[in-house]
Amino acid sequence: MLPLLLSEAKSEKKPDPTNLLTIELESGKVIIELFPDDAPNHVKRIKELAKEGLYDGVVFHRVIDGFMAQTGDVEFGNSKKFNKGRVGTGGSTKPDLKAEFNKRKHVKGTCSMARSSSPNSANSQFFICFGNKGHLDGKYTVWGQVIEGMERIDKIKRGSSFSGSVSNPDIMKKVTVGIRKSEGTAQ
Predict the structure, then answer these.
(1) I need a surface site. Which of 31, 44, 58, 176 has the fewest CB within 10 A?
(2) Which residue, among 172, 179, 145, 157, has the nearest Cα to 25 in the 3D structure?
(3) Tens digits of per-residue pLDDT, 18-33?
């Protein structure tokens, strides 16, 4: 009976295709529903960087088993000009974002902005949660949720148990806004 209750809790409404982000990994596609009502400036930034192609080729540089997979360092994390010593410290040429903390929870598949100790320092880096991480709620800006392909995120190479730093990391091959009609999903 419990699985029936969980399935009934899911929304039957199809997401707006303009508020979907597609990440192409070596193993296949991951689809993320964006939350512009909860984090308008963060969603706008994610879309801008994706449309400009700046996320294409960027690695998952910090992956901690049971916690999260972090990516989005467009400055030092691109696989074509990868800087192992600086990856995770960079951002884009755009200004940092003011925090848009919201009521969304950090659960499996939640997409949230990475930042320094300053709440208003998010720029281009983000992470995807491997499970429920309630201690992050209200402290990091949630801007999306994986709705397809979480099994691919679950298989991303893990980093060291201390820092999460990944040797030979997985790559976001291409990141696009929306889904092409030929793919038949969410259209």
Answers:
(1) 44
(2) 172
(3) 999 999 999 999 999 9
